[in-house]
Design a protein that fits this description.
Oligomer: single chain
Strand order of the largest sheet: 3-2-1-4-7
Helix content: 25-40%
Order of helices and strands: EEEHEEEHEHEEEEEHHHHEHEH
Number of strands: 14
CATH architecture of the largest domain: 2-Layer Sandwich
Largest sheet: 5 strands, mixed
Strand content: 15-25%
Number of domains: 2
CATH class of the largest domain: Alpha Beta
CATH superfamily of the largest domain: ATPase, nucleotide binding domain
Length: 304
């Protein structure tokens, strides 16, 4: 049995887990943002609910463990940012600790009990406030020791000409500091920037998608260009990893019509041909962070 956590900037979600199918959440608690001792105490209060000593503690965080320094990069929780988080928590809690970022936890959940069941290579895609992802091969997270693998949204590779007929696009500035990242044009905010650039009007991503579904001309043009920009880098990811399923989470995944367009465009551009969808909606809609953390921790204890 393990204790797992999904650490957010607002709340800490905790659960006791005996298997991926037996995860028992406990009431969430506010995240102590600036007090590490209070952060640890919140975690310990969940651990104390366990009827037996846990084999380990597993966390999903909205950040990464730097593979070189081993320090946590977690901007939304300052009290753990910059720490040797795994080591500090192990010392404070007296238990083994495993940590994965939220996109990696998402793909672990999908590979274990979601849309990726039965697939050797699963690449999880996040299309929401940001563009991200994670990779699981043979049930094992490629980022098992932390790192940046799966971050396909960041690199200056976004097309500067896309759509039919082609439109000229700027190299939008990305929050990571680069110009021309997929994150900067294909996240929800990126879609909004793209629409404003093309048409000079400001709409939310939800409004753009709704207008596209009504076949309105401006929104249809935006989505045509958006899908064209997105599909080629995602097709490259499929070719490089050999993924046979790509579950999608994040706010933009709520549009099955949009996912269908992305799937068709990606399958048209990859080497291996599938007669069924490759890009699909994620199945773990409720608490994928907790599920992924549980799978991470349970797998770690199974190998001990």
């Amino acid at each position: 049995m393990i204790v797992c956590f999904d650490i957010g900037g607002t709340a800490i979600k905790g659960a006791l887990a005996w298997s991926p199918q037996d995860i028992r959440p406990v009431p969430r608690q506010p995240t102590p943002l600036h007090d590490f001792d209070a952060f640890v105490a919140t975690m310990r209060s969940v651990i104390d609910l366990s009827p037996e000593k846990p084999d380990c503690v597993a966390l999903s965080i909205a950040g990464i463990i730097d593979p070189d320094s081993r320090r946590a990069v977690v901007a939304n929780v300052p009290c753990i940012h910059g720490r040797l988080l795994q080591e500090d928590l192990q010392a404070a809690l007296g238990l083994p600790v495993k940590i994965a970022n939220d996109a990696d936890s998402f793909v672990l959940a999908e590979a274990g009990i979601g849309a990726g069941r039965g697939h050797r290579v699963v690449f999880g895609v996040i299309l929401g406030t940001g563009v991200g992802g994670g990779l699981v091969i043979d049930g094992r997270l490629i980022n098992s020791e932390g790192g940046f693998a799966g971050e396909w949204g960041h690199a200056p590779v976004a097309a500067t000409q896309a759509g039919n007929p082609p439109a000229q696009l700027p190299r939008f500035r990305c929050g990571c500091g680069l110009d021309g990242c997929i994150d900067a044009v294909c996240s929800a905010r990126g879609m909004e920037k793209l629409h404003a650039h093309l048409h000079g009007t400001t709409l939310t991503s939800e409004e753009i998608i709704t207008a596209w579904q009504r076949q309105e001309a401006d929104a249809s043009r935006t989505i045509d260009i958006y899908v064209d920009v997105l599909a080629s880098p995602l097709a490259l990811v499929a070719n490089v990893t050999g993924a046979t399923i790509m579950p999608v989470g994040g706010g933009l995944s709520n549009s099955l019509e949009l996912l269908g367009e992305i799937d068709r465009a990606v399958r048209d551009r990859i080497l291996r041909k599938f007669d069924r969808p490759l890009v699909v909606k994620a199945e773990c809609q409720i608490e994928p962070g907790l599920i992924g953390a549980a799978i991470l921790g349970l797998a770690a204890t199974a190998t001990v």
